[in-house]
Amino acid sequence: xxxxxxxxxxxxxxxxxxxxxxxxxxxxxxxxxxxxxxxxxxxxxxxxxxxxxxxxxxxxxxxxxxxxxxxxxxxxxxxxxxxxxxxxxxxxxxxxxxxxxxxxxxxxxxxxxxxxxxxxxxxxxxxxxxxxxxxxxxxxxxxxxxxxxxxxxxxxxxxxxxxxxxxxxxxxxxxxxxxxxxxxxxxxxxxxxxxxxxxxxxxxxxxxxxxxxxxxxxxxxxxxxxxxxxxxxxxxxxxxxxxxxxxxxxxxxxxxxxxxxxxxxxxxxxxxxxxxxxxxxxxxxxxxxxxxxxxxxxxxxxxxxxxxxxxxxxxxxxxxxxxxxxxxxxxxxxxxxx
Length: 338
Known about the structure:
Strand order of the largest sheet: 1-2
Structural class: mainly alpha
Distance between the termini: 43 Å
Number of strands: 2
Order of helices and strands: HEEHHHHHHHHHHHH
Radius of gyration: 19 Å
Helix content: over 70%
Oligomer: single chain
Shape: globular
Strand content: under 5%
């Protein structure tokens, strides 16, 4: 199985890079992101690289599952994740070209996340919590996760620096957590597709992911984390995306406290503050990547030693480490941009 997953990773990386090479002239013509006051880039840059990333993943799923099959009990969940990702990719593609009303985007996101949550049948909260209440909580959490991945995709390489360690860890740790093999397969495919995209998004980026990529990536990763939590590895499922969770959530709460319109674009995330405070784009992404490797190690520790004390200690240490990085990002004058 290991060799199969390696082949999937390499295959989706090559397919993603090939699709980008084919699509880029079209994206340059029709999906050019022009810089504004809230942008991190300074020259018009094509967006829509997510078409290749998501396309490579969905192709791998279609071909792979057609060849090796999917157990009946996971078929509905797999189909829901694939279809919901495709819907969000279409919504994102339209929004990249001509922005959609925030209310319509939210309704479509809720529908996509609800389809995924309701077909998994996974329970994460204690048994005394009514299933309906748990489903509502998971749907709301899923919608927030989809949006925070979108919000955090505002700097060259940052989504690669975040999501490659996360999905790579899911693919590796999934065996120890006894996750369903189809979910591990999708994690490997997404890891490969992001690696294929990475050379084009390397600072200074020649291509952006766009909403067409960030929205379905958020959905797929949220679906994987839900399956990981469903095995009982709740601490690991929290630790892996902890940097994104803390940066985006703290920023949202601060903006709400200032009574800002939280659905509008801004530059107040910690990673954006870092570039304002003298960090180079490459340095910010390197910090995020290194931090996520450490968080993946803590997640692995919670699987090797599943006692309550270890879970609490790992979560506490992870929170402190993320907090230190956020604090460093928010302090001026530590580095000189290149």
